[in-house]
Amino acid sequence: MVAVLERHLLLYRRLWRASVFSAVVLPVLFLVSIGVGVGRHVGEVGGVGYLAWIAPGVMASTAFQVAVGESTYTVLGGFKWGRGYHAMRAAPVEVRDMVAGWLLYVLFRVEVAVVVFLGVTGAFGALRSPWAVAAPVVAALVALAAAAPVTAFAASIDHDSYFALLFRFVMIPSTLFAGVFFPVEQLPQVVRPLAYASPLWHGVELSRAATLGVAPPWPVWAHVGCLLVFFVAGVVWAVAAFGKRLQD
Fold first, then answer.
1. How far is 125 from 212, CA to CA, in rounded Å?
2. Rounded CA gap, 218 and 185, in Å?
3. What is the rounded radius of gyration, in angstroms, for the C-alpha atoms of the chain?
């Protein structure tokens, strides 16, 4: 597991510049433009300024998007084009160590982006509770809940065209309708269960509870439990998918 993580980190040393904008700079610019710019016209949401309200949502969304993005082409490429996972298997490296090492790498990528974002949010005065220090933990749960099943999905397909469907029908709708930009309660009643089924919604509500010092709509254990269900189910699926793929 540690050797797999080290491999991914060594590769990242050559590619980190390409990820800085999307993982760190873009969320910060988004926070400034939407949170500050649009926030002047929105006013308050839930009794707080729009910047303070939207910041934890964008933070959770950043963790979600980085985890999903990292777990698509890189994983498929490791099987289909670079065949790095086949090389690991010949080393030999156990399948579960491949999956664990990869998820730890994704966690590293997410936490770097989230910690920077949290610092910028604090500089803007948008953190209203000492519980904000728990936001990176929430981001880690969101990242693992998203990365594990997407990694399994990427290991199960043969063509990268499926990723367009994943982005269009999963990642983008989740980002738009999981409470990042407006309360889920504003959605039609019939649509809300789709938001509740997204791991991002649970992460958004936990992040908002941490940074604002308010109680989430569900008990904390329920939100955490849902995220852990996504993570555990994804890991089981990923181990099975990796094992099957490496038999080819």
1. 11
2. 13
3. 18
Single-letter amino acid, residue 1? M
pLDDT tens digits for range 174-231: 988 999 988 898 888 988 998 899 999 999 999 999 999 999 989 999 999 999 999 9
CB-based burial, 78-92: b 16+ in 10 Å, e otherwise: bbbeeebbeebbeee
Q: Give CA–CA dist 150/106, Å, rounded.
A: 12
The C-alpha atoms of residue 168 and residue 188 are separated, in whole angstroms, by: 21
DSSP 8-57: HHHHHHHHHHHHHIIIIIHHHHHIIIIIIIIHHHH-EETTEEHHHHHHHH
**Alpha-carbon torsion angle 118, 122, 123, 124, nearest 10:** 110
The residues pairing with 44 across neighbouring beta strands, listed in sequence order, are: 49
What are 230-235's contacts with CB under 8 Å, separation 24+?
Answer: 230/145, 230/146, 230/148, 230/149, 230/199, 231/141, 231/144, 231/145, 231/148, 232/148, 233/148, 233/149, 234/144, 234/145, 234/147, 234/148, 234/149, 234/150, 234/151, 234/152, 235/99, 235/103, 235/148
How does pLDDT run across 82-132, given as a tens digit for each residue?
Answer: 888 999 988 888 999 999 999 999 999 999 889 888 888 888 888 889 999
